[in-house]
Design a protein that fits this description.
By secondary structure, the chain is mainly α. The protein contains three helices and no strands.
Length: 88
């Protein structure tokens, strides 16, 4: 059961129509994956120095739009693979 804070927050936030679900999913998926990958790749490539957060943000600024476009392009292929793999 949602908490009262969660319920109040849901009432205040503007909501998109459900037809935007694939777009919103792609946006969140790309954003989270791009941030995680940027953090790991920057750490592996140049270490965890004092300017690490700024280097991650610079990498993320490039990775996020690329990841979003890739998720949108690859989504139909993934949906087809899931349909072939999962009983339904």
């Amino acid at each position: 059961m949602p908490s009262s804070t969660e319920t109040r927050l849901r009432r205040r936030l503007p909501r998109l129509h459900k037809r935007f679900t694939p777009l919103v999913f792609a946006f969140y998926m790309a954003g989270i994956m791009a941030l995680l990958m940027s953090a790991v790749i920057v750490a592996a490539g140049s270490g965890l120095g004092a300017d690490y957060p700024w280097r991650v943000l610079r990498a993320y600024a490039l990775a996020m739009p690329v990841a979003f476009v890739c998720v949108m392009l690859v989504r139909p292929v993934v949906m087809r693979l899931v349909a072939l793999t999962v009983q339904g």
